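Q: Give me the 3D complex with zinc ion.
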Amino acid sequence: MKIIVTLDQPETMRADLIVVPLSSEAKRLPVAAAPLDKSLNGQLTKLIAEEKLTGKAGEYALLKSNGRVAAEKIMLLGAGARKLDAKAARKFAALAVQKARVVHAKSLALLIPDADAKEMAAVAEALTEGAILGDYRFLKYRSEEAKKHAEGTVEALALAVTNRQTKVAAEKGVVTGQLLAKATVFARELINEPASVTTPTRLMETARVLAAGSKRVSVKVFDRAQMEEMGMGGLLGVARGSDEPPYLVHLTYKPVGKAKRRIAVVGKGLTFDSGGLSLKPAEAMEDMKIDMSGAAAVLGVFSAIAEINPACEVHGIIGLCENMPSGKAVKPGDVLHTMSGKTVEILNTDAEGRITLADTLHYAQQQKPDYVIDLATLTGACMVALGQEVAGLMSNSRALADRLLSAADRAGELMWELPLTEEYRDSLKSRVADLKNITGTRYGGAITAGLFLQEFVRPSQAWAHLDIAGPAWAEKDTVPHQPIGGVGYGVRTVLRLIQNL
Ligand code: BES
Ligand code: ZN
Ligand code: ZN
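A: Here is the predicted complex, encoded as structure tokens.
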């Protein structure tokens, strides 16, 4: 989708469709649409009254211009907010492209209410993100016939602004928005692929391709033999039941000048989670190709990092393997030796993510980062606590947690903090090893998983854990810029965070 910012008058715009936002408070035309309305003999104003439009999100009315203005059709579309701020803009643009597809419009113009330069940049950025993310679909495995019948796609989007200063700000916003949305789509593509395609090998190769594409990105790959030497008994234990070879992948981005800060971003990379010998029921396994969404987010971040050009050094670390049952698989009661020296009694082989993360988090800290962040589809319990849209944040550092919360807010990704409750720590004590990998109660499962990870984090290391089991996958079309499928959750939050480090 080609996106431009324009000062053209709406009456002269040659778009297939012009979309006018209706705020939920004003319930009348925005000022910017007045000349358009005049050329249309006041039909837009009339339409609001006739259709009793209230500006609710997604509510719309369509008008054919019949040659009165250059555009073919005009749509009034509810913005669902009193003001088209960044949050509302992201949803609005996604809805607009989806409506445009339905009416077969290939070129679309959005009328943007005037704002100061700073706000305009944020709004244009969010509109751009919303348009690209809302237009995304995973059609690869549909037949050519079915693809033909799928709705068309929006090829050109114009953001219509009214003043020269804000146009410059909006253009900047469009550039950033495109980068962030493309990185998100990069992650979505990996998540949506079936697990037999997105194997550990495939993700490792993807990392190699990313490193080959930029002078400032490099990659190290460790195979099974090397991980054995490093003592990664946790990750290797989980990988044992699978025929797919596991990999530890370490991407590094170095800025041009001397970096003031260093951050490590760790992703859970289970390309399929069957549960292992503690096999999941069939239904719970249906979506388990998404168990690499944390790793996909790290790869998404690295797909855009050189262009985002942050001043800090960034390490992306993903432990890649499958969790499968077989004659070789780790058994309940087995004890695994992690790289940190701590031993773990495996009581449920389905609590595998925390075991692979024990090793990847340990390795990440050897890079001496100021901050470590991990993203993991770790627990169903986090979805019980926070639902399918909100990630759980757990951290030992107030400063890092606050940075993440504000980056997430700016990125339009929902996140809520959960405590690392001291009182639950003892429930992870094992009678035969240093730790066991489950507690024996479902209660507080997201927190106890976070506490397990904390056992592998040095107390002086600022660290944050994001349980993204809920928001990694969109099961329904509830959020317009998150069509059903892989969401690419975390990519934009992490990029925003490192942009400001
Ligand atoms: N990958 C799952 C968590 C998950 C569940 C992610 C649903 C996305 C959607 C994880 O490995 C798992 O199986 N966790 C168990 C832990 C339990 C055995 C302590 C769970 O949540 O049931
Ligand atoms: Zn599992
Ligand atoms: Zn898992």
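A quick observation: The chain has a mean pLDDT of 96.
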